[in-house]
From TrEMBL:
Residues 15-203 form the Glycosyltransferase subfamily 4-like N-terminal domain. InterPro entries: Glyco_trans_1, Glyco_trans_4-like_N. Keywords: Transferase. NCBIfam families: PRK10307.1. Residues 218-389 form the Glycosyl transferase family domain. This is Colanic acid biosynthesis glycosyltransferase WcaI. Pfam families: Glyco_trans_4_4, Glycos_transf_1. It comes from Spirosoma telluris. GO terms for molecular function: glycosyltransferase activity. The keyword Transferase applies. PANTHER family: COLANIC ACID BIOSYNTHESIS GLYCOSYL TRANSFERASE WCAI-RELATED (PTHR12526:SF633), GLYCOSYLTRANSFERASE (PTHR12526).
Amino acid sequence: MRILVYDINYAPELTGVGKYTGEMGAWLVRQGHNVQVITAMPYYPEWEVHNRYKGKGWFTETIDGVVVHRCPLYIPKNATTPKRILHELSFVFSSLPYWISTLFGKRYDAVICISPPFQIGLFPTMYSILRKVPLWYHIQDLQVDMASELGMIKNKTFVDLLFSIEKFILKRSTVVSTISEGMVQKLTDKKVLKKPSLLFPNWVDEQFIKPLPIEASLRSELGLRNQDKVILYSGSIGEKQGLELIIEAAKHYSARSDVKFLIFGSGGGKARLESLVSTYQLTNVSFHPLQPYEKLSALLATADIHLVLQKKSASDLVLPSKLTSILAAGGCALVSAVPGTTLHYVIDSNQMGILIEPESVEALIAGIERVLRDDISFYRQNARSYARQYLSKEGILQQFEDELLRLSSEKRDIWESVL
């Protein structure tokens, strides 16, 4: 198949949506497909263009056999809601030259659009209509719902406009998929889809990300002792997680020299966390850059406790992508989730982590105490088993390809049903 992928994030980004889209593109090429991508300069989660791409305009490169068309875009240093909207729109308009070229070029067999940003679905929708090509719209975050429920956008008229644009895209997509059962249900509740959305979860390469002994971890490199109790957060440092709780918990343990809090990553919320550490004069918190993929198993083996935190209002609007790697590494995850959400149900029913109330310092400290006190080996074993059974990269992507091939073979009938 000739496949076009449209996503603001792509490899070589190490975390977030770009990581998964990059792995998907490379996997499809290895199956013999022709894959091209329209994307931005890599910038996430640092919110700064990676050094190798600075100063470049529109250009094309090849990554793992995938032809990648890069676009410049506006990247704010402080990603407030208005600046983030401008950032996303700048990519949409910057990608227009590639879409014009694509419109008059050889037709693709399928277009895959990855959201967020949700509005980037507009160009693929128009291409799908004009060239009669199936559109697969995959949703990693329910962005408009989140912006509304978190109060990030106060103007109701503007929120309604965003929902109208989302509805336009969803109604005209051949396939809509998302990453959790809860998000599938929320899409169903919108009552705009012509056919049920598909579950297409994030995956993990469980053969590469696996449990390692403490001797193979990064403790020695980081100056940590084997007897230290290490509490790790790794990933994007944004607004939806409520990560200030980590610093408040670290303050509680400031008198214990054996309890260490490690934060790996970057993002718009990092400066605030660093400021809190400075204000409290904490010596048990350290900040580090994201590690290359080759060192991920070693990093995960460093921790006694893995923090997977998010705010109550983000429940079932996102499913933390970091969780897949934690599970594959047999880590003990401390997860903040609201009862009734997919995240809470999956963790609880499979007994593969400790659940705590979101946005509560007391609950976080109580969870940490429980891990430090109790035998949690069965959580680790259950986590690894779940990853191998349900999150296998090869299995999930094989199912995805099967659906793509079905779309291609039936595209005439599908197009008629869309019309």
